[in-house]
Design brief:
It contains 25 helices and eleven strands. α14 packs across α15. With 629 residues, the chain is α/β, with parallel strands linked by helices. The protein starts with 14 loop residues before the first helix and ends in a 10-residue tail after the last helix.
Length: 629
């Protein structure tokens, strides 16, 4: 991080141990806190007050280990000249505090994505910032951190209003809330500076100019810094008079949930922060990265890291022309041509849509097949007049049922397949490069995933037309493709499920913890949150991953269950049994979350040979889908 110019890193590890000590001084027991903290894989959301208890309780050994780790992290950050950002009190409190302080202004928040407003996990408690107890707790939290860590950079993050709309839109009330939040920080550290996410201004229509201005101007200038969190797509600085005079950091968000998708907006990344800095009356004070997950799309993060050192816009075409040689250590003209194609396709997404990967393999639709839009619907009575040739492609993305949205596609798949062909052709010269093999596997995965999306629509179309023979054939082809992609992903260490699960288990002190931590790790990448017997989590597949082991052991079997119900529906001549499909899918998922089978932590197979084989099998013939049945 230090070598990439990062000097303002978040340092949130271990805060639960701090909170345990703070809340004990407010007569909240360790047992009460067991229901307050989320599990290891869900701490980010429990810290924001979205959920409580899910995946927990946290063992005392976990709390102690994380505090030790945090002290090591902070020591190294300070050693490198970094300024770590510590957490501050946002108002999120355990339920027990309502009993200890019955007269305090504590509000129970509404449901956050549980299936049936389950109070075991949702509806957390928020202490009003205008209550005197808020400043007491805020001061105690910062004081305890200073006591534990011995020093501070005086910069604290607090996001009380992130996905948590204030109860009133009165600007005076909002101003008083924000001022009280800052007083809580300042009472513990006279030199405190508040660092706040600006996501609420991007995502929540509540924040109109009067409300936004009231919040931002409630703190003395220089004492509040805002992260313009999604500036490469939706820059707030340009529509807010530069955050009404408040300093801000231009941030690239780029990735949601650590999903795998070759995606980016290189032109925006290479110019956006420069345009912001040079604009009239600019209040920009830095650049940053605010992704939800990393370890994907290296090209995007390579470029963004450079922006900390650049004064001028980047000529992306010239940058791309030398990128492959820098990355692979060798000049290969065909690879340069391939990256030029990728720059103008995958890394040129300008439609303004958030790219949360919803490929069918990793985010399988929970939908009645008759509600899924396919070309066969155009041949049905009354439908043809609704669409013309030009509107068909956009309609395919926009038309959706309540539970199915066609995956985002902003580029020509045929051009990306051409780039893949150039990658494979260059393989004999570059196969010794691990970075080349990573990119080859990723690009093959990308092309095959989009092929799978099309193949799934063919499956559904066969069902809608009552074509049992093609339905069976296409279903088997889809499942075979999932298995083949698992083999592909197994050929590089960067696409394995095993390391994720093993790293979780290695933190355990006993068998009980090992099961708990593995359940957390498995749940975050599948069902994510709560479910009933026949209702899947509202956040299912949010953390989906293209990992070898996950495709073969979970995604493939899940698709197989859906296809089984499609075939049975045609065989019996009755409707699709949506509720029964859901029951079997939920049961499959819950069993997988609780299972303990072990997956490889080292790659197997030859990435070039596997990529070449799958290219020939699925992608070489542009008409393969037309006769795949």
């Amino acid at each position: 991080m230090a070598l990439q110019g990062i000097n303002l890193p978040l340092a949130f590890t271990g805060q639960e141990a701090i909170w345990q000590k703070v809340f004990q001084n407010f007569n909240v027991s360790t047992r009460d806190l067991g229901d307050f903290f989320g599990g290891p894989a869900f701490l980010a959301w429990s810290r924001m007050g979205n959920l409580h208890g899910w995946g927990g309780p946290l063992p005392q050994s976990w709390l102690d280990q994380q505090l030790i780790l945090q002290k090591k992290i902070l020591a190294r950050m300070h050693e490198f000249g970094m300024n770590p950002v510590l957490p501050a009190f946002s108002g999120n409190v355990p339920e027990a505090l309502t009993r200890v302080y019955p007269s305090a202004k504590i509000t129970r928040l509404g449901n956050w994505f549980t299936v049936r407003s389950d109070p075991r996990w949702c509806c957390t408690y928020l202490l009003d910032a205008t209550d005197p107890l808020f400043i007491e707790i805020g001061r105690a939290f910062i004081t305890q951190q200073l006591k534990e860590y011995g020093r501070s950079s005086h910069i604290y993050n607090c996001d009380t209003f992130d996905e948590n709309t204030p109860p009133s839109d009165d600007p005076e009330y909002i101003s008083s809330l924000a001022a009280a939040i800052f007083r809580g920080m300042e009472s513990g550290d006279d030199n405190a500076v508040w660092l706040m996410q600006g996501w609420l201004f991007t995502d929540d229509p509540f924040w109109k100019p009067p409300q936004m201005k009231a919040l931002l101007r409630s703190v003395p200038i220089g004492k509040l810094v805002v992260l313009d969190l999604f500036a490469e797509v939706k820059p707030v600085w340009a529509t807010s008079e530069q955050f009404y005079g408040v300093p801000y950091i231009w941030c690239m968000l780029h990735n949601f949930a650590g999903n795998f998708e070759m995606y980016g907006i290189l032109d925006s990344v290479g110019s956006g922060s420069v345009v912001a800095r040079l604009s009239a009356n600019s209040t920009m004070v830095g650049v940053g990265m605010s992704m939800e997950g990393i370890e994907q799309n290296p090209i995007v993060y390579d470029l963004m890291s450079e922006m900390a050192f650049r004064q001028d816009k980047v000529d992306i075409q010239a940058w791309i022309d030398t990128y492959a040689q820098r990355r692979y250590g060798k000049l290969v003209p065909l690879i340069q041509d391939a990256w030029n194609i990728l720059y103008h396709t995958l890394y040129n997404c300008t439609d303004g849509l958030m790219d949360k990967n919803r490929d069918v393999i990793v985010s399988f639709p929970d939908a009645d097949p008759n509600s899924i839009f396919t070309s066969s619907l155009l041949s049905m009575p009354g439908n043809r007049s609704q669409f013309n040739h030009q509107s068909l492609r956009r309609a395919t993305y926009e038309l959706s049922s309540d539970s199915y949205t066609h995956p985002h596609l902003w580029y020509s798949s045929s051009q990306v397949i051409q780039a893949l062909r150039l990658f494979i052709t260059s393989g004999d010269q570059l196969s010794e490069s691990s970075t080349y093999r990573y990119d080859l596997v990723d690009l093959s995965r990308q092309a095959l995933a989009k092929y799978a999306n099309q193949l799934f629509i063919k499956v559904v179309e066969a069902y809608q037309l009552g074509d049992l023979h093609n339905l069976r054939s296409l279903s088997q082809r889809f499942l075979g493709l999932v298995g083949d992609m698992d083999i592909l992903l197994a050929s590089h260490d960067g696409f394995l499920l095993g390391p994720w699960l093993e790293s979780a288990k290695q933190l355990a002190q006993n068998e009980e913890q090992k099961k708990q931590f593995e359940w957390n790790a498995r749940t975050q990448i599948t069902m994510w949150f709560d479910n009933t017997e026949d209702e899947a989590s509202l956040l299912r597949d949010y953390g989906n991953k293209y990992w070898s082991g996950l495709l073969q052991d979970y995604y493939g079997p899940r698709a197989g269950v859906y296809f089984k119900f499609l075939i049975q529906s045609l065989e019996k001549g009755d409707g699709f049994q949506l509720r029964e499909w859901r029951r079997e899918w939920v049961k499959l998922t819950n069993n997988w979350q609780s299972s303990c089978n072990v997956f490889p932590t080292k790659s197997t197979g030859n990435a070039l040979n596997v990529s070449r084989w799958l290219y020939d099998k699925y992608l070489k013939d542009p008409n393969s889908l037309d006769h795949s049945g």
